[in-house]
């Protein structure tokens, strides 16, 4: 792994995948096909890209029951325990409305309600992640979304993975469809004969899914468009090189474009981690994915002080930030920008991916400067409410009319004044 | 105004302005110019499109002081009172973090912090709205954003409107720049010699501003991209036709593409409102703007029951919804989708635009199904925090490793297990 002095500046830059013009055109065409031909287009695309001949998009209750039956009971228990932790963490995000009453009988209020329907895209194949089902569905459930739908590309034999279906079962989700790529996003956004459209689409996916989400954004809501995984670790000479290396590789194995960065005050640790990364890479099953991530998007930076490391971490604003220093809590308190912070030696990043309860859908590409983890807040909406009494109107109408006229909006002024116009015989 | 039966279905459809290919290309070119040439490009574009020859982009303290001096003291008092109402309403949106401690010494937490910098685009010319300054700046201030910047296109003489500068003064904002259009958005996103970039850009603007915001989205955060104004009114025979008509026109005067819809159970009211709209239009200063909005994007629907009207309103999910019925509160309680609800005869829509305290930046184009008013929540971010103790790790490491291996992520499993690897001589 490459090692450099931090004083030469941060060279790791993260950018959003834009997609080629060809990909954008293809995605637009797919969406139009689904709009025009509904299920027929869905069946055609699923045969073309997933190699599965379907006669129905909906997963049957029996298929779910059979998947649960086949699924390792120990893993089912693990997923159930993880789901409970995730639910507990997200329950603290429940939001209340409020109402402010004035003495003149007027009030203003904020009403909080859940979005009515949400569709979660679950990638298929090697990236069929049961944990993604938990992380996307649970915040929606805690928010009170009444209809939650899963959609995921089938294998060639027309089935979804047992892990995904078992996760759906644990969460009580029974509306599950077989479809992937841009066509799945289009079906969720615009509906087909067998899929009623949803109000919000969330979940990870490949470039076609990301482009389709960007395309339908506005007609329906979408969550963030996530980039490749990122980890940064701040460590001093109290950290163990093999553990730092293992944590760096845990994110590198996600994607050839993933980024793993070590920020350290210790030259000795830098060298040892560099060596450990190479050593551990050799036996990693996903070595072919992790190697280019380490070679092209990763770096070990050596800084003069912990404060310099903190400054660099804020500049990166990484998706995941681990802190393995003597006084890890104090360092964490000073961090301004990170999606999630993992404090101390025993808070290895995968603990957050699977189990601790926080959400693993996190801002990438330095957007932690202004974005947050997927949460209950993403599945609610707020309606403003204004009730003016006659007295409140009387007390304030002149001010409001003056402000409207200041902006050249005579119609606004007249609307407020119309309540005092002389009334004719018709109301 | 056109009148039709609701049973024939809602014909008002709202869509997002996409911009022509030519406009998109022009906006991309402007952004690149600003990235490449900074202030020089800003001066050139400002001369080209605003007709103003500038030597400095920054508004001086003296310019602000002089604008306040010239400004009507009564209006200054009105804006100050409005600002206090807006601040009070938004203060209830302040969000707290939380921390959940487990018996094994581990904890998960959510830390809430403000975005560090925000830039507000304020349209110039006839649409220079002091109220927009209040509505965008105050939520950011309540959130705790430490740097708030205004940018607005100058008149030909190189000045900004007294109303905008007076509003900035009231709010204690002193970093104000003269620039409009896509170049202003580019400068806020990427910076120039004289403008330090911001983390989030909010505020209304024309199609070039909207396209530029879409273009920079991801590199910085943006607020929603708002469409033309919308109002829907649910009214029964207790409503006054002249007041209903005046309120419809208050939104129609914003934009030729604005939409004003009346939903009523009363044929008599329908006819009277139709007549009143035509009558009031004739003397409206912005008649040329309101007329096409009324002719092309507005409608009076007659329904059989209040419930049918409620159903239709939910289908529209309008930006503004007024309720003028005998039991307006009960009707309001049943509404599921609207940006803001104005209850009863005295809650004319402009009260919310200027004074009541709720935010006038609201979801348009039926996006109230899943979007909300601009708020304090738009200017904060949340960081997840995970601290696992040795005991928590010990208790859960096997489960986490199993879940990682279920997903084929061996590197994740090893990271968690690495804490129990035998250590060599180096840490």
Shape of chain A: globular
Number of beta strands of chain A: 14
Low-pLDDT runs of 5+ residues of chain A are none
**CATH fold title of the largest domain in chain A:** Rossmann fold
Instruction: Tell me the number of structural domains of chain A.
Output: 3
Question: Whole-Å distance between the termini of chain A?
Answer: 80 Å
Structural class by sheet pairing and helices of chain A: alpha/beta
Named CATH architecture of the largest domain in chain A: 3-Layer(aba) Sandwich
Question: Largest interface, and how many residues on either side?
Answer: A-B, 127 and 128 residues
Cα gyration radius of chain A (Å): 26 Å
Quaternary structure annotation: homodimer
Largest sheet of chain A: 6 strands, parallel
Could you spell the SSE succession of chain A in H and E letters?
A: EHHHEEEHEHEHEHEEHEHHEHEHEHEHH
Task: Tell me about this structure.
Two copies of one chain form a homodimer. The longest helix of chain A is centred in the first third of the chain and has 30 residues, at 21-50. In chain A, the strands form three sheets. Chain A has a six-stranded parallel β-sheet with strand order 1-11-10-9-12-13, with helices on both faces. By secondary structure, chain A is α/β, with parallel strands linked by helices. Chain A has helices spanning 21-50, 61-70, 73-91, 130-143, 162-171, 181-190, 207-216, 241-252, 267-282, 287-297, 306-316, 328-334, 350-354, 390-406, 410-417, and strands spanning 3-5, 98-101, 107-114, 117-121, 147-152, 176-178, 200-202, 221-222, 230-235, 259-264, 299-302, 320-324, 340-343, 380-387. Chain A is globular and about 90 Å long. Chain A has three domains: 3-16 and 229-356, Rossmann fold (3-Layer(aba) Sandwich), CATH 3.40.50.1980; 21-222, Nitrogenase molybdenum iron protein domain (Rossmann fold), CATH 3.40.50; 388-420, no CATH class. Chains A and B meet through helix 3, strand 3, helix 8, helix 9 and strand 13 of A and helix 3, strand 3, helix 8, helix 9 and strand 13 of B. Chains A, B: GO terms for molecular function: histidinol dehydrogenase activity; NAD binding; zinc ion binding. Chains A, B: The active site is at residues 319-320. Chains A, B: It is an enzyme of class 1 (oxidoreductase). Chains A, B: It catalyses: L-histidinol + 2 NAD(+) + H2O = L-histidine + 2 NADH + 3 H(+). Chains A, B: Catalyzes the sequential NAD-dependent oxidations of L-histidinol to L-histidinaldehyde and then to L-histidine.
